[in-house]
Structure formats: structure tokens, C-alpha cells
Amino acid sequence: MTAISIITPWHNCSELTDIYEPSHGHAEIITIDNASEPEHAARIKQMTERMGGWYIPNKTNEKFAKANNRGFKFATKNIIMFLNNDTAASSGWVFQVADDVKDGALYGVSSDDRMIDDKIYPYIEGWCIAATRATWNKIGLWDEQITGMYWEDNLLCLQALKLGIRLETRAWPVKHISNYTTNRTPGALDGAQSNQKRFEELARAWQR
């Protein structure tokens, strides 16, 4: 096993265990089950146990940020990755992650930019993002004041940039089945506009 903890929130979609389990072995797996229906919860729990990981159930769907932060409390490794459940990778890819991740940066596979008042704010896409424990502790993890889903990664990377933490992308062999869980989670986009507003307000406050 590598020195990596992988934290993944789940809400139903247990059919994804068929691709998740063979993709992400060799790491400490921490599953945060956001109130999946019983048949899905059972399958997700069984997968986690086969992988020798932690299965942490929530009574309600705490969404992405809170689930990630709860999972961090159970992580025992020095490198901690937050990873979506709708991901597939080459077996053993986490060994590349272990070689790449160093203190002082956030690492991921995909990056993009947001433009606020003609200023560019880069970010690592939150479906796969890793850092050392010391770096996560410096950032303060995910912003739990937002509601619903989306813009969590923008807020996280904004905080990192404020602290002088670099954003690095790497060509890790992991793929995201984009919007798979979003399309199957009722109300997934309900908080997107308010989350965007919070990001814009914090970005502007930083520039004053």
C-alpha cells in the first residue's frame, strides 16, 4: 500500500463500484456514504471492506465539502487525495501520485480558470485533487459555508492561492465520467448560483 489516503463521497450510484474498486487499490480508501439507499449502501460498504478501507455512513446527505472534511479526519497517510466515485484509472496509478506530490502545492489532473473583473483565477478541478497533509492543514480544507454542490474547487484553490500554495497538474492515468453522479443526484445544482456568488465575493475581497 502506498502512503496515500483516498477520500470519496458516495450517494447511491453503487454500480460505479465495478470500476472504482479495480482502479484505486494500493491506497487507503475512505468512503463517506451520504445517506445512500440501503441496497446501494450495502454494495458500497462491501466494496470498501474488500479494499480494506474505512466506511463512514452519514444519516443525511452532507454533500461534497462536508463529506470530504469528515473523511479527512480518518485519513492516516501523508498524502491525501479527494477523488470522485465516477472515476476510472490504470491499476497502480497511485504510485505515480506518491512520487509527484510534495509540500506546498495542490495537484490534480485537470485545471481551468474563472474570470472575475478581468482577473483570472486558476483552479484544479475537484474530482481529483491531492496534497500532503501539511498542505491541507495550511489551507484549512473545504469551505463548508457553501450549499449544495459546485464551486467547491474554486473556493478551495482561491484559499490556496491566497496562502502562496501552487496549483500543479500532472498527467496521471485517471479519467472522470463527467456528470455521471450529478445527473443521478436530485438537487445537485440547487446551490450552484449561491456558491458562485460566494466565490466572486471572496475573490473581490482578496483584491481590495
Describe this structure as you would to a colleague.
This protein has 208 residues and is of the alpha/beta class. It has one domain: Spore Coat Polysaccharide Biosynthesis Protein SpsA, Chain A (Alpha-Beta Complex), CATH 3.90.550.10. It is built from seven helices and eleven strands. The strands form three sheets. Strands 3-2-1-4-9-6-10 form a seven-stranded mixed sheet, with helices on both faces. Strands 5-11 form a two-stranded antiparallel sheet. Strands 7-8 form a two-stranded antiparallel sheet. Helix 1 links the parallel strand 1 and strand 2. Helix 6 runs parallel beside helix 7. The protein is globular, with a radius of gyration of 16 Å.
Topology summary:
Blueprint: E1 4-10, H1 17-23, E2 28-34, H2 38-50, E3 54-58, H3 63-72, E4 79-83, E5 87-89, H4 94-100, E6 105-108, E7 111-116, E8 119-124, E9 128-132, H5 133-139, H6 152-162, E10 166-169, E11 174-176, H7 192-207
Parallel strand pairs: 1-2, 1-4, 2-3, 6-10
Antiparallel strand pairs: 4-9, 5-11, 6-9, 7-8
Helix pairs in contact: 6-7
